[in-house]
Write a structure and sequence with these properties.
The chain is of the alpha+beta class. It has 15 helices and 16 strands.
Length: 509
């Protein structure tokens, strides 16, 4: 698991990773930037959801039978920092800790002490457990889970990784694979050595996928013994797959269920769902165990949803960052994503994209010197123009590479240079005008805008007669596709109706 902070959110230095993420040794090529745009908008959303696939183990030692609260440890602090800090929701924490007590009593390891939960302040769907007794769940996972049995399945899965020593075993397998590969490279020819390395990587990936399936099965059995519905695991995995599908349909091509990377460390979601259902059926028919939906929803009522507003957030086409004191609007039709590396945008039908990132001002000769310093190739010198954007010094230019055109702006704001880059195949006058309008929307926030910053949160409401998915979705405050998000958050299929008196999640300000 890679613990990547959200660049616009998590670093004290507020350094959005620069385009040097694609350095070729002497500077960024527009060629590589083009490749990035193509690959990001086709695959990055799937990778983002990979962070939420139930869930890669951390290398661990054998768990202790006497677990204490180790939330003052260095490891705990580092993990929490990289996931946006702790999110304090006492009611939800107490409810999850009560579930953990039941899981401990039903554990495969006799005498195992109970874990303690820490909620992480990120919308990313993720969870993991440490043998120290610390178990971590993101608020994004709380929003996606529909009931207590689903949350219990996630936690039981993570604890299974620890009790089965998956992290240590996989680390050992990776060390063995590295030794075999090194030996092959020394003893045999180069081509044979590459074949051995490829085989070893496949072996490690297969080993990791089997660990995930083993943890799934162990988790199903534990939650059943703890009195929860064992089908909660398959329902959550299904929701996770739907979440990934929704994101990829918004920001990139939709993957086929038949797409499978043999180098992946996780099995495909449909395979995991099928195996989780089979494991539950071995224990009994649907209806076995409690789901505790009403109590779970009451526990998460009011929990924050989506981006932390103080660390940058998207509302429709607008991105606002209160702490960094700026906002900007994407062109009409763009979908924005505040991702790990930067702010990205895409307008799918027209095959257009944007990226906003920043670097610390190098202070070596002004904006024009920086623009010509070699961080981007294909720059058209004749297009460079210095100007002022809403009182901020700026410079704009155009670059070309192959069949791609780039409109570039560098804006100086405080100690940082903010870089807006737009990519399009055909840079017509109308398209260029829309890009320039977006660039010119970059500005400092007004005092009133600071006062108007409100985060989103989950609200649990009771349906009344006449309610439908459409009427309840109309009350949702989400950037895109409120009806699809409403169904996702509530585990509703397309043809499911609303039950009067039943409780549902919606997202409000």
């Amino acid at each position: 698991m890679q613990y990547n902070s959200h660049a616009l959110r998590k670093t004290n230095e507020v350094r959005i990773p620069s385009l040097r993420l694609w350095l070729d040794g002497c500077g960024l090529c527009v060629r590589l930037f083009t490749i990035f745009f193509l690959s990001f908008f086709l695959t990055a959303c799937a990778e983002l959801e990979h962070q939420g696939h139930l869930f890669e183990p951390i290398p661990t030692q054998k768990p202790s039978s006497s677990v204490t609260d180790n939330r003052s440890s260095v490891q705990h602090k580092e993990l929490v920092t990289q996931f946006g800090g702790e999110y304090h929701a006492p009611q939800a924490e107490a409810y999850l800790d009560a579930i953990l007590l039941k899981l401990a009593e039903a554990s495969d390891v006799p005498g195992q002490a109970a874990y303690k939960v820490t909620i992480l302040n990120t919308p990313v769907v993720n969870a993991f457990a440490l043998p120290s007794g610390n178990l971590y769940i993101t608020r994004g996972l709380l929003a996606l889970s529909a009931d207590a049995s689903e949350a219990a399945a996630v936690m039981a899965h993570e604890i299974a990784h620890v009790t089965l020593r998956h992290g240590a075993l996989r680390a050992e397998r990776e060390r063995e694979a590295a030794l075999i590969s090194q030996a092959a490279a020394i003893i045999q020819n180069r081509q044979k050595g590459e074949e051995v390395r490829s085989h070893q990587r496949l072996s490690v990936a297969s080993f990791s996928r089997q660990q995930e399936l083993d943890a799934d099965i162990a988790g199903v059995r534990v939650i059943a013994r703890a009195g929860f519905d064992p089908y909660g695991a398959s329902r959550f995995l299904t929701a996770l797959g739907r979440s990934s599908d929704l994101r990829t349909s918004l920001y990139g091509k939709k993957k086929s269920v038949f797409d499978f990377d043999i180098m992946s460390t996780h099995p495909s979601t449909p395979d995991r769902v099928a195996r989780a259902v089979a494991s539950a059926r071995e224990l009994g028919a649907p209806g076995l165990g409690i789901r505790d939906r009403a109590e779970y929803l009451a526990a998460i009522n009011g929990v924050a949803f989506g981006d932390d507003p103080n660390e940058g957030f998207v509302r429709d086409r607008k991105f606002t960052h209160p702490r960094l004191n700026f906002s900007f609007y994407a062109p009409e039709g763009f979908l924005l994503e505040n991702a790990n590396e930067a702010v990205f945008g895409v307008r799918q039908p027209d095959n257009e994209a944007l990226r906003l990132d920043s670097v610390r001002n190098p202070q070596f000769g002004g904006l024009e010197a920086y623009l010509n310093s070699g961080w981007i190739d294909g720059l058209l010198s004749s297009s460079i123009k210095k100007l002022e954007i809403n009182g901020l010094p700026a410079i704009i230019a155009t670059a070309r590479a192959g069949e791609w055109n780039f409109r570039i702006a560098v804006i100086q704001h405080g100690d940082f240079l903010y870089r807006l880059i737009f990519a399009v195949r055909a840079l017509s006058d109308s398209v260029d005008q829309s890009f320039l309008q977006s660039i010119n929307s970059f500005r400092r926030l007004t005092p009133q805008e600071y006062l108007d910053v409100h985060g989103l949160r989950l609200a649990i409401i009771a349906a009344v007669a006449g309610d439908s998915p459409e009427t309840l979705a109309a009350r949702m405050v989400v950037p895109n596709r409120p009806l699809e998000y409403f169904r996702l958050l509530n585990g509703l299929a397309e043809n499911d109706s609303i039950i009067p008196g039943e409780h549902y999640k919606i997202v409000i300000e």
